[in-house]
Amino acid sequence: MDLVVGVDAGGTASRAVVATLGGVVAGRAVAGPGNPLSRGPAAVEAIGEALREALAGCDPDRVAGGVLGVAGTSAVADPAIAAAFDGMWASLGLTCPMRIVGDVVTAFAAGTPSPSGEALIAGTGAVAARIEQHEIVSVADGLGWLLGDEGSGRWMGLQALRHAVRAWSSPFAAAVAAHAGVSSADALVRWAQALPLADIDALAPIVCAAARYGDPVATTIVADGVTRLLSTLDSVAASGPVVLGGGLLIADTPMRAGVLAALYARGITVGTSHDPAAAAAWLAARSLGAPDSLHAALLTRATPHVATTARPSMPPGR
User: Fold this and answer.
1) CA pseudo-torsion sign 306, 68, 130, 11
2) From 51, 55, 131, 179, which residue has the greatest number of CB atoms within 10 Å?
3) pLDDT per residue as tens, the chain (318 positions)
4) How far is residue 236's CA from residue 14's CA, in Å, rounded to a whole number?
5) Of 73, 90, 136, 66, nearest in space to 283 by CA
6) CATH architecture of 1-111+274-287
7) What dihedral do alpha carbons 103, 108, 111, 112 form, nearest 10°?
């Protein structure tokens, strides 16, 4: 038994990795959305599809363990969902232990080999969590766009709409109007109230691009977003290492630049979450006694950045 499997399953896709205990990736696959809270049993089917494809050609008897990082883990408390996971695992011919953890745990493990620290994730939503021995011990925000997710991509889109409709003659408003395909403030209000959420989310890169060019409205939104993300992180008593995840904090965005500058100024070690599915496989191997050095073999891009007093600060938008 020399293989482990890892899964990163969220609202967009389910990604599976099969790896050897020596750190070689033996298979990868991607399938549909895998959040059981929003997708129900269909999410379990998507996770199973990704695993089945990743395991193609592998003897299931060689698999010694698996970790599934899943968004919406609270749904697993539903007996029907729990039974669906058990049935999916058995249908793959896997008899080894299966551990289901929150996708925040695998996102954290994808950025550092440390068992404890914090994760700050900002994509469509935003959440921070304190991790101890790869268990979530406290969480801040992650409340959804209606009640929270401050500093997230959707939050940025909503802020863009609010600023644009109040300063209609500004160049920033013109960019927002062009995106929405409207020609008046009243039309923008009607467009927004229809809640085209995917289109609202798509305003975030427009804000980031405008901030890079020095647009004052966009720069204000970014600075406010950075402040809110740091406040969320501080709510879980961040001491480091801190792993950044989600599209806004993985990509080269002014949001990432602002958060990094603040964390570097505090002297906090920062890692970036890459390949949470491989991190899930590493967690499975770790539980079997594999050394922490296996982390580097499976996640070479996740080497944490170490802050030093010599590192210059980077203002938002640089």
Assistant:
1) positive
2) 51
3) 789 999 999 878 899 999 998 888 999 999 999 888 888 889 999 999 999 999 998 999 999 999 999 987 888 889 999 999 999 999 999 999 999 999 899 999 999 999 999 999 998 889 999 999 999 999 999 888 899 999 999 999 999 999 999 999 999 999 999 999 999 999 999 999 999 999 999 999 999 999 999 999 999 999 999 999 999 999 998 787 999 998 899 999 999 999 999 999 999 999 999 899 999 999 999 988 888 788 888 887 433 333 322 222 222 232
4) 28
5) 66
6) 2-Layer Sandwich (3.30)
7) -140
Instruction: Sheet containing 126-132: give its strands across.
Output: 135-141, 126-132, 117-122, 242-245, 270-272
Q: Which of 36, 97, 44, 91 is nearest to 66 (CA)?
A: 97
For 51-69, the three-class secondary structure string (H helix, E strand, C coil) is: HHHHCCCCCHHHEEEEEEE
H or E stretch covering 5: strand 3-9
Predicted TM-score (pTM) of this structure: 0.85
Q: What is the DSSP letter of 93?
A: T
Q: Which residue's entry shows tokens 């989310």? A: 201
CATH code of 114-272+302-318, in short, is 3.30.420.40
Q: Residue 68 forms beta bridges with which residues?
A: 7, 100
DSSP state of 269: -
- DSSP 8-state class, residue 73: G
Q: Where in the chain is the domain with CATH 3.30.420.40?
A: 1-111+274-287, 114-272+302-318
